Amino acid sequence: MDGYGWGEAIALQIVHRTTVWETHGMGDILGYARVSTGDQDVAGQTMRLEEAGAIKVFTDVMSGKSMERPGLAELIAYARKGDTLAVVRLDRLGRSLAELLTTVETLRGQGIALLSLEEKIDTSSAAGELIFHVFGAIAHFERRLISERTRDGIAAARAKGKLPGRQPLDMSKVHAAIKLVEASISPTEAARQLGIGRSTIYREMRRLGVERPI
């Protein structure tokens, strides 16, 4: 069973509102449900999200090791600044901590709040805004660790007379970046949030005929 034990610890620091509707008066609540091919709880997730005030629920059905999440990309492109993305629990946003952090940073960059029903995380409130800072700090820490490990690996390979080859391009990240650009996020910011090169995004934009946001 996937989940984030630290989410419950963080949730204890958040002021829980008596109703979701009191917390979200500025924008719309958009639900997101993710299931695997062997998981049949999409209807249950959808019902809970609608009960929490979601006016529209986007879904993804994941199979095998596929990282494609067209439903989430559609939600992010659809959402406006001030809206809230709601999930039943945090692990619906990512199958790994790195994937979760990337998604949370994307939401923050677009001014979209995050609501997790089970962990009672609500970043649209003053207290909940601290959660975005916590996620940001964790993401920064993760990037530094990855950078240090990469440098150490390259140094070790060179010491042995070997040079590491180029890593294969994750096209799911490229597609997600294009969705962000189409939603008026700059290519530079999209590249930063998804951890890919700007040149890759520009190349794909030219191929698809996507114009730069004004």
From TrEMBL:
<dbReference type="Pfam" id="PF13384">
    <property type="entry name" value="HTH_23"/>
</dbReference>
<protein>
    <submittedName>
        <fullName>Invertase</fullName>
    </submittedName>
</protein>
<keyword id="KW-0238">DNA-binding</keyword>
<comment type="similarity">
    <text>Belongs to the site-specific recombinase resolvase family.</text>
</comment>
<feature type="domain" description="Resolvase/invertase-type recombinase catalytic">
    <location>
        <begin position="28"/>
        <end position="161"/>
    </location>
</feature>
<dbReference type="InterPro" id="IPR009057">
    <property type="entry name" value="Homeodomain-like_sf"/>
</dbReference>
<keyword id="KW-0229">DNA integration</keyword>
<dbReference type="InterPro" id="IPR036162">
    <property type="entry name" value="Resolvase-like_N_sf"/>
</dbReference>
<keyword id="KW-0233">DNA recombination</keyword>
<feature type="active site" description="O-(5'-phospho-DNA)-serine intermediate">
    <location>
        <position position="36"/>
    </location>
</feature>
<dbReference type="InterPro" id="IPR006119">
    <property type="entry name" value="Resolv_N"/>
</dbReference>
<dbReference type="Pfam" id="PF00239">
    <property type="entry name" value="Resolvase"/>
</dbReference>
<dbReference type="InterPro" id="IPR006118">
    <property type="entry name" value="Recombinase_CS"/>
</dbReference>
<dbReference type="InterPro" id="IPR050639">
    <property type="entry name" value="SSR_resolvase"/>
</dbReference>
